[in-house]
Amino acid sequence: MSVGFKEWALVCEVLGAGRQSVILRKGGIAEGRAGFRFEHPDFLLVPTLFHEQVSKLKLPPETRLPQQTSGQHEIRFRVQVEWTRELTDWEQIQRLDRFHLWSEQTLRDRFLYDGKEAVNFAFVRVYKLSKPFVFPDAPKYSGCRSWVELPDVPEGTVFEPVLNEKTHRQCESELLSIFER
C-alpha cells in the first residue's frame, strides 16, 4: 500500500505548482492522544474538497476549487519530507507568511487549537506523477484523519520534481534563516 496525506485541494495545487514547499499542520479529532506528527517521510497528496477552503486561504476572490470526479480520487503529487519542526513561537510563524497559502487567521486558529500553542512544520520536496493515479473512493479514505492507506501507485509511474535543485535549496536557505533569528 501507498501512504496518502489528506490536504486541502488548493494547497495541493500550490505545492504541485512549486509555489509552496512547506506544510503546516496541527491535527485534530482523529489524530489520537499523541497528536499529529509527520510520521511518514514519503507520501502521496490526497486532495480534499470543501467550499470554505477559498475563504481560509490567501487567494484572489475569484479562485475556484478544482473539479473532482464523483466516486474517484485523482492523485497527481508525491511529497518527500526533508525536515520538520514543531513551531511554538507565533512571531516566527508570522515570518513564514510568504512561504504558504494559509490566511493568518486560519493559521492562528490552528496554532491555538486544543490549548497547545504550536503547529507542525515540514519542509518538503514535491514531485509530479507522470500520469494521474486514479482509483475509486471508499469509506476508508474519509473522516478527520491526516493519513490514509492507498492502493499502490501503478508500476512505471515516474516522479519529476516540481522545482529544480537550485530553486528548492534557495527556498530552504530562506526558511532556515527565519528559524535562526
Helix and strand topology:
Blueprint lengths: L1 E7 H8 L5 E4 L16 E7 L23 E16 L2 H5 L9 H9 L6 E18 L10 E4 L8 E3 L3 H15 L2
Parallel strand pairs: 1-3
Antiparallel strand pairs: 1-6, 2-5, 3-4, 4-5, 5-7
The largest sheet is: 7 strands, mixed
Q: What structural category characterises the helix and strand content? A: alpha+beta
Alpha carbon gap, first and last residue? 41 Å
Task: Please report the total strand number as a whole number.
Answer: 7
Shape descriptor: globular
Strand content: 25-35%
Topology as H/E string? EHEEEHHEEEH
> What's the overall average pLDDT, rounded?
90
Helix content: 10-25%
Q: Which runs of at least 5 residues are low in confidence (pLDDT < 50)? A: none
Rg from alpha-carbon coordinates: 16 Å
Sum this structure up briefly.
The chain is an alpha+beta fold. It has helices at 9-16, 90-94, 104-112, 165-179; strands spanning 2-8, 22-25, 42-48, 72-87, 119-136, 147-150, 159-161.
